[in-house]
Amino acid sequence: MVRIVSAAAVVVALAAALVVVRVWSVSRDEWRAGEALVARYNLGADEEPPPGAGIEDPRRALLREAIVRYREAALWYLPGNPYGRRAVERLLLIGQRGEQDADDDLALYAYRAARSAIQATRTFGFADAEGLARADRGIARVSARLERPAAGAEPGTPAEREKRHRARLAEGDDPDPWYSLLAGLGLVTWVLGAFAFILRGLDERGRLRLGPALRSGLVVVAGVAAWLAGLALA
Fold it and tell me: Which of 53, 86, 139, 205 has the fewest CB atoms within 10 Å distance of its CB?
């Protein structure tokens, strides 16, 4: 039995290590891809875009692709992974740069990418309240400038429009505690079911005990389902 438990612990540790390596590797690769795109953009800093290029400007397209890459880098997050936070910071800087260049569409795209990355990873412990606040301020500021009131409606002052957009962003920001609890309980159930399978589902020779193995397997499936549902709905 000791050998079975030891072997199972080694397998679990190796599986966890593979997950960590995979997350870090993909996040790093996406970060580097974003950095390469920004470097290409900066190399052409003295070039003038063709007249009427707009969103089809090749240099502008580089930044939009970099935004996609940085967002992906931030989404592949685990505690201790530095690339997630760096990627969010880059997205916020691109948003600020877009505002400075009077490119509100690009700025809004970058701010929204930063916000969605932070929101998508918050359940995993990525508590970047400062980054979220900066993204919200940027979205509200740019959205207020881009807003076109309906015919006959009072446009309001820029400050009033910005305040309204910030209020909308603040609605429903916090994850539902019940769904977060469901995710946590699902994870605990998953782990307990796995240990039950190791301890009860196998005999001393490592052969399967059908009844206990089936029951612990169902516990694992229920735990995984609850964990995924909690993460999706939180």
Answer: 205
Residue ranges for the chain with pLDDT beneath 50 = 53-55
Yes or no: say if 113 and 93 are a contact pair by the CB < 8 Å rule: no
pLDDT single digits (tens) 22-58: 878 889 999 999 999 999 998 875 555 555 544 457 8
* pTM, to two decimals: 0.69
Q: Output the pLDDT for position 135.
A: 94
Helix pair 58-75, 104-121: axis angle to 10 deg: 10
The angle at the Cα of 130, spanning 115 to 230, to the nearest 5 degrees, equals 55
The phi-psi region of residue 83 (left if phi > 0; otherwise alpha if psi is between -120 and 50; otherwise beta) is alpha
State how far the Cα of 206 lies from the Cα of 213, in Å rounded to an integer. Answer: 12
CB 190 within 8 A of CB 225: no
DSSP of the chain: -HHHHHHHHHHHHHHHHHHHHHHHHHHHHHHHHHHHHHHHHHHTTTPPPPTT-GGG-HHHHHHHHHHHHHHHHHHS--TT-HHHHHHHHHHHHHHHHHHHTT-HHHHHHHHHHHHHHHHHHGGGT---HHHHHHHHHHHHHHHHHH--PPTTS----HHHHHHHHHHHHHTT-SPPHHHHHHHHHHHHHHHHHHHHHHHHSB-TTS-B-HHHHHHHHHHHHHHHHHHHHHHHH-
Q: Comparing C-alpha atoms, which of 80, 67, 79, 72 is closest to residue 108?
A: 67
Amino acid at 167: A
